[in-house]
């Protein structure tokens, strides 16, 4: 009775809270500029019921298994796919099915709840009572494909992070989590595999606090049959109920118990659920003043706080994407337990596209937000030497029909090349002309599709906030920005500054492994080159270059598995007649001392039947400090190129006075391209140069020869001048070799720790940086450390009470070390033998270091 009375009193407060929430909502919407800010962008009404979410996790935490269940319960598939049988919807590449891992992120669209089940919502109903469109992206967990995850994170509005209930928070999870922090993506956590032996929910919750630096809000607790038996369901702290799944069923039938029924069914779960509800409300009150007011209105009775008030509070805390507060759900996807409440949580807690901050853009060296640009608030200073007439900001706003990011390119055997896009403003219509701001070409969007993993439905347009596919584009690559602009001149594109607009630019890390590709015959060479171009459009973290001396094609990538899979796709999927050599390591060359002379070269010869003549001077030295990027300095793969003009070449305002037919941008681009070509091959072993500072002096009075000084002639002059400077350095013994050094994090149990440390430091020449049960010490998180003793989690029934086993079975340890990459090739097999098959590791490039004499000799 007391509960009901206080509930009644609470509803009055809830109405009052509604006003506060409304007020707060207005405040929020003013704070986050939504996509519909400019007057001509009409939102699709369904945008509020759209969720663009990704599934992120360490390898083997159950991402694809969970995705399969979501597709099945939403009515999208008729049967549940299985990773082990190779019958999953999202892992549809042959290489993925053979290995049982996700290699490329797959996009799939479904409705939850299924369209026929949703009822008309009443006021105060949770959002999950009406059908929502969910665009779901299943991402890879393997460290070699980190770039694939980064690409997908850019376009997500929310994410579900899946943790393995046995292994807890793993190394790759921390890495992906911090990347999601960089993009401020709202996240919820699903603790999976609670049916397995050794699953420890309490330990996992504490690790979320200590390793991910967020405060876990436990929304569900596991239900063990009879308190000690198998995992059978979850206690729901938000709705004060318990959900039970039938063993061995497909998970569609769920038995629900309210508090009174639960008290008779399972008293221990009943009392734990009351504790969980109290802890959840108290945690939220610390982060959200609205809920605090509600709670006080309910006379501090946590049980009387309405479920919808808790859902709204969780949503407010999650929306900013800071990861300070993390709602946690429980389940076991493989046993079909806990997936439907997780999908309800996606509808209830994660944002729709209009609730996300505007995407950041860059135009030249300027950064800003898309809505500021479209409203004409961003003052773009056109480069003084740009000959094209820039348009006024207001005319730009009225004319941009749509702006989209191509986040993924896939070669489909039946449909050809498919370009996945996320539309950020306006809409992309069928047959509209799209200007590619990276490649400066115009293409037509002939067919628009909505993807269902490997199946597709034709649609007429893709509106802002939605994810779709354009079929048949010839040039677009992963990461390109596409602008739809009426009356666009196919050659010139839209007026400046729109023609160089970049949405959410991304840096591709330098590849460290490479392998030679040998076509089986000369006639096959062109075919192999064409296939490689396709592979590179799909995956910009692969690089292809041709060795000038041997004419060999070299394919470089982020890891052994990455290259292995590229080879499999080349030979099996694209049927190329070629073999791939052994995987090698990409070393670098560096300049050790400053050259004494300035090398002046005048290039003078015919290029393709045209006379070409141009000159310049070059000078090369080691790079000590990283210089800020300006219009004169360009950063390129760890090198810096500076273009200098004599003092007399500038007018009073500091603008370069160049001949009328040579703009500064043309000059800079040509000279930088020439220097780039020279730096790609060092004089000593043909490796690219690293940590070098090249200065190119160009004097219009002596180095410019009218119409003969074409861009090609300027590039050739710069290339020859830099090569001459490098050659002088080589003759004076000033060229050193550098090798990639990796940051390696190894997870293992206590017993094999000694053997691993000994192996790393003595046999592999590595430096062990830290041995820790918890890598939070090295974590680069800005959030303060969390006192884990204050975190609520239901006690683990199966964990032993002895203190030694507090950190889980066999006490997991983490070793962080820096090791030369050469020593890490094939390390996984060795690690497995050292740890009895239980150890895992992830590594990323830390930096390039100079080789010592003995190591150089050994190599």
Helix content: 25-40%
Overall CATH architecture of the largest domain = 3-Layer(aba) Sandwich
Which sheet architecture does the biggest sheet show?
A: 9 strands, antiparallel
The whole-angstrom Rg is 30 Å
Q: State the total count of DSSP E strands.
A: 38
CATH superfamily of the largest domain: P-loop containing nucleotide triphosphate hydrolases
- Broad shape: globular
- Number of domains in the coordinates? 5
**CATH topology name of the largest domain:** Rossmann fold
Low-confidence stretches: 1-42, 382-391, 774-780, 800-809
Quickly name the level 1 CATH class of the largest domain. Alpha Beta
Q: Tell me, rounded to a whole number, the average pLDDT.
A: 81
CA-CA gap between termini:
80 Å
> In DSSP terms, counting alpha (H) and pi (I) runs of 4 or more, how many helices?
21
From the helix content, strand content and strand pairing, which structural class follows?
alpha+beta
Portion in strands: 25-35%
């Amino acid at each position: 009775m007391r509960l009901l009375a206080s509930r009644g009193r609470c509803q009055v407060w809830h109405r009052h809270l509604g006003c506060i929430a409304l007020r707060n909502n207005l405040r929020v919407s003013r704070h986050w500029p939504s996509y519909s800010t400019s007057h001509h962008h009409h939102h699709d009404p369904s945008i509020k019921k759209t969720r663009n979410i990704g599934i992120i996790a360490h390898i083997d935490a159950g991402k694809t298994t969970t995705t399969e269940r979501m597709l099945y319960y939403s009515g999208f598939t008729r049967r549940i796919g299985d990773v082990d049988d190779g019958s999953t919807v999202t892992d549809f590449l042959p290489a993925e099915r053979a290995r049982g891992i996700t290699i490329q992120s797959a996009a799939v669209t479904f409705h939850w709840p299924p369209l026929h089940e949703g009822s008309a919502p009443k006021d105060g109903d949770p959002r999950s009572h009406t059908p929502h469109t969910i665009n779901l992206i299943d991402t890879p967990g393997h460290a070699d494909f980190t770039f694939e995850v980064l690409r997908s994170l850019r376009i997500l509005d929310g994410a579900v992070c899946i943790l393995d209930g046995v292994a807890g928070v793993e190394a790759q999870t921390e890495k992906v989590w911090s990347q999601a922090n960089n993009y401020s993506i709202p996240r919820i956590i699903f603790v999976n595999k609670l049916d397995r032996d050794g699953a420890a929910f309490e330990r996992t919750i504490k690790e979320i606090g200590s390793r991910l630096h967020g405060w876990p809000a436990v929304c569900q607790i596991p239900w063990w049959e009879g308190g000690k038996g198998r995992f059978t369901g979850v206690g729901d702290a938000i709705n004060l109920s318990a959900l039970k799944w039938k063993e061995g069923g497909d998970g569609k039938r769920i038995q629900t118990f309210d508090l009174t029924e639960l008290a008779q069914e399972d008293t221990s779960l009943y009392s734990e659920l009351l504790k969980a509800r109290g802890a959840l409300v108290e945690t939220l009150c610390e982060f959200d003043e609205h809920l605090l007011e509600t709670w006080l209105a309910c006379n501090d009775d946590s049980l009387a706080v309405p479920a919808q008030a808790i859902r709204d509070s969780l949503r407010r805390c999650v929306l900013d994407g800071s990861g300070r507060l993390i709602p946690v759900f429980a389940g076991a996807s493989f046993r079909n337990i806990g997936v439907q409440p997780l999908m309800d949580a996606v509808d209830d807690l994660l944002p729709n596209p209009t609730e996300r901050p505007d995407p950041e853009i860059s135009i030249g060296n300027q950064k800003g937000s898309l809505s500021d640009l479209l409203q004409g608030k961003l003052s773009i200073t056109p480069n003084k030497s740009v000959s094209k007439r820039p348009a006024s900001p207001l005319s730009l706003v009225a004319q941009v029909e749509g702006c989209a990011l191509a986040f993924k390119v896939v070669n489909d055997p039946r449909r050809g090349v498919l370009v996945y896009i996320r539309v950020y403003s306006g809409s992309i219509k069928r047959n509209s002309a799209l200007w590619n701001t990276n490649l400066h070409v115009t293409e037509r969007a002939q067919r628009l599709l909505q993807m269902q993993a490997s199946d597709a439905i034709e649609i007429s347009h893709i509106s802002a906030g939605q994810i779709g596919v354009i079929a048949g584009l010839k040039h677009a690559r992963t990461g390109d920005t596409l602008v739809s602009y009426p009356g666009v001149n196919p050659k010139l594109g839209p007026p400046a500054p729109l023609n160089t607009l970049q949405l959410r630019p991304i840096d591709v890390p330098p590849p460290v492994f490479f392998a030679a590709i040998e076509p089986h015959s000369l006639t096959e060479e062109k075919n192999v080159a064409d296939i490689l171009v396709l592979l590179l459009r799909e995956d910009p973290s692969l690089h292809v270059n041709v060795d000038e001396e041997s004419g060999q094609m070299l394919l470089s990538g982020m890891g052994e598995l990455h290259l292995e899979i590229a080879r499999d796709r080349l030979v099996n999927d694209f049927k190329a007649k070629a073999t791939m050599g052994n995987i090698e390591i990409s070393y670098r060359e560096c300049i050790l001392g400053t050259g004494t002379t300035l090398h002046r070269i005048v290039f003078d010869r015919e290029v393709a039947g045209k006379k070409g003549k141009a000159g310049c001077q070059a000078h090369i030295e080691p790079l000590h400090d990283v210089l800020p990027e300006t219009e004169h300095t360009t950063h390129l793969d760890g090198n810096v190129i500076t273009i200098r003009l004599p003092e007399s070449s500038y007018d009073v305002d500091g603008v370069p006075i160049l001949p009328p037919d040579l703009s500064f941008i043309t000059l800079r681009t040509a000279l930088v391209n020439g220097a780039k070509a020279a730096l790609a091959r060092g004089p000593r072993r043909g490796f690219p140069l690293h940590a070098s500072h090249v200065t190119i002096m160009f004097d219009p009075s002596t180095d410019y020869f009218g119409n003969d000084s074409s861009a090609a002639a300027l590039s050739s002059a710069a290339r020859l001048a830099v090569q001459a400077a490098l050659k002088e350095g080589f003759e004076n013994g000033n060229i050193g070799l550098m090798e990639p050094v990796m940051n390696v994090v190894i997870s293992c149990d206590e017993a094999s720790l000694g053997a691993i440390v000994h192996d790393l430091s003595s046999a592999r020449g590595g430096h062990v940086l830290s041995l820790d049960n918890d890598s939070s010490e090295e974590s680069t998180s800005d959030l303060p450390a969390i006192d884990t003793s204050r975190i609520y989690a239901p006690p683990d029934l199966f964990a032993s009470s002895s203190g030694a086993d507090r950190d889980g079975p066999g006490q997991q340890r983490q070793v962080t070390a820096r090791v030369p990459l050469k020593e890490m090739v094939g390390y996984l097999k060795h690690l497995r033998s050292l740890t009895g098959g239980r150890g895992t590791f992830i590594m990323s490039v830390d930096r390039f270091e100079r080789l010592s004499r003995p190591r150089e000799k050994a190599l």
